Amino acid sequence: MSEGDEPLTPVSLRKRAKKTQRQVAEALGKKVTTISDWERRKTKPQLSFSEVKQLMEFLNCTLEELIQAFEGNARQN
What we know:
The structure is a single chain. By secondary structure, this protein is mostly helical. It has helices spanning 10-16, 21-28, 32-39, 49-59, 63-76. The longest helix has 14 residues, at 63-76. It is globular.
């Protein structure tokens, strides 16, 4: 886990990278509402391998962190 004891979430990864939802959306060619839906656990990301890599690079995170952020959220519902 990173940054203290708080679990990783899509929001925490984005904020750690000092990015806005709009910046993430533009980097991936998605709508801001799509990023918001991911963060609110309304929908799950449907990304290609290259988009996953792009998101990792943009958020400066590892694959493990990305999985933990999104899978951890899914288990909390």
